[in-house]
Amino acid sequence: MSETVTIVFLTPAGERLEVPARSGESVMEAAIQNNVDGIEAECGGACMCATCHVYAGEAAVAALPPRSEDEEDLLESAAAEVRDESRLSCQLTVTPALAGAVFGLPDRQV
Ligand code: FES
Q: Which domains does the chain have, with CATH numbers?
C-alpha cells in the first residue's frame, strides 16, 4: 500500500491548503484530486502545457530531484513569473520525503 503524506499548497492570498498525497502519484494529481484552484494541468501531466506550475518551498526543493531538461524548456512558456524554485507539478513524484512540503501557487495560470 502506498504511503499518504500531507502536502501544502499556498495560494497567492496566503491561504494554506493541506491536501493528502499518495507516494507514487504526482504533486499535480494530488492537487487535481483535491480541487486545488490554480493548477489547471491542461495536458494531463504530459509535460506539454505548463499550467501545473508551482513554486517549490525550501523543504520541497531539498526533497526533489532537479528539473529535467524538458521541464526546464517548458517552464519558459509558463504564464506566471518563472523563478529559481519554479517546477511543473506533474513532473514531481510524491515521496514520504515531501511530507509537509509547501508549494506556492502562481498568481495566475493561463
Ligand atoms: S500538466 Fe501539463 S505540463 Fe504539467
A: 4-104 (3.10.20.30)
